[in-house]
């Protein structure tokens, strides 16, 4: 009998947001595949959990190579838990390849729902949320970033992006150039943490704010 792949959502900031089932799965899984094993250790300590299973790393750099190994564990009957640094696996995080490979082998895939940075930001943004499009991270190079933005320049649904703090000013400036300085937007950072901040305004205004540091 094949095992089960469990995708577990982890807190995006406040550890108190961890769902009760997360602790149960961390304690009982045969194998835990973690994006960062050091963060996993801090998470289990905070939740008072001692994993019984084997812990392996599973991140962008080894995802392709480790997926077949984990699939064989699943086919052999193991319960494999996948956790990433924050939020749900597969959403701009490792997981898609493992899910696809598990499905191909008729392995059951389920999830422990948890906090989502995408949905939290949308809810706080003050922008329309009845229809939206998640675009993940933009390319780091300026030309490629502009090209990606131009692909969706005519999109009227609310667009959601992830961005690193040190690239925020350049990205907002590029968005203002492509989408227009007056298009309404929101920058959400440190969500659920002590210094949570949501800055709302036109893209031009937000770009100027970010440029000031």
Question: What can be said about this structure in brief?
Answer:
The chain is an alpha/beta fold and 213 residues long. Helix content is 38%, strand content 22%.
SSE topology sketch:
Blueprint: E1 4-8, H1 20-28, E2 31-34, H2 37-47, E3 54-57, H3 63-75, E4 79-83, H4 96-104, E5 108-112, H5 117-125, E6 132-137, H6 142-151, E7 158-162, H7 168-179, E8 184-189, E9 197-202, H8 203-211
What keyword list fits this structure?
38% helix; 5-stranded parallel sheet; two-stranded parallel ribbon; alpha/beta; Methyltransferase, Cobalt-precorrin-4 Transmethylase, Domain 2; 2 domains; 213 residues; Cobalt-precorrin-4 Transmethylase, domain 1
The tally of domains stands at 2
> Can you tell me the CATH topology of the largest domain?
Cobalt-precorrin-4 Transmethylase, domain 1
Second CATH tier, the architecture of the largest domain: 3-Layer(aba) Sandwich
Strand order of the largest sheet: 3-2-4-1-5
Most strands sheet: 5 strands, parallel
What's the N-to-C terminus distance? 56 Å
Provide the low-confidence segments as ranges: none
**Which structural category fits the helices and strands?**
alpha/beta
Instruction: Describe the global form.
Output: elongated
Structure description:
This protein is α/β, with parallel strands linked by helices and 213 residues long. It has two domains: 4-112, 3-Layer(aba) Sandwich (Cobalt-precorrin-4 Transmethylase, domain 1), CATH 3.40.1010.10; 117-211, Tetrapyrrole methylase, C-terminal domain (Methyltransferase, Cobalt-precorrin-4 Transmethylase, Domain 2, 2-Layer Sandwich), CATH 3.30.950. 38% of the residues lie in helices and 22% in strands. It is built from eight helices and nine strands. It holds the Pfam family TP_methylase. This is 16S rRNA (Cytidine(1402)-2'-O)-methyltransferase.
């Amino acid at each position: 009998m094949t095992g089960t792949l469990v995708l577990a959502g982890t807190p995006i900031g406040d550890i108190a947001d961890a769902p009760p089932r997360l602790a149960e799965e961390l304690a009982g899984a045969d194998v835990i595949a973690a994006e960062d094993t050091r963060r996993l250790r801090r998470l289990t300590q905070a939740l008072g959990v001692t994993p019984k299973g084997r812990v392996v790393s599973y991140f962008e750099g080894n995802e392709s190579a480790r997926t077949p190994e984990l699939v064989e564990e699943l086919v052999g009957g193991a319960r494999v838990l996948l956790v990433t640094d924050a939020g749900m696996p597969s959403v701009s995080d490792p997981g898609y390849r493992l899910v696809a490979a598990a499905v191909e082998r008729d392995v059951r895939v389920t999830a422990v729902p948890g906090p989502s940075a995408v949905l939290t930001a949308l809810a706080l943004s003050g922008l329309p949320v009845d229809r939206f499009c998640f675009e993940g991270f933009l390319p780091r190079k300026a030309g490629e970033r502009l090209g990606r933005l131009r692909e969706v320049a005519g999109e009227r649904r609310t667009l959601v992006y992830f961005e690193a703090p040190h690239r925020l000013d350049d990205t907002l400036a590029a968005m203002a150039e492509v989408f227009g300085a007056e298009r309404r937007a929101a920058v959400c950072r440190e969500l659920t943490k002590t210094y949570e901040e949501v800055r709302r305004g036109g893209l031009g205004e937000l770009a100027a704010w970010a440029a000031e540091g």
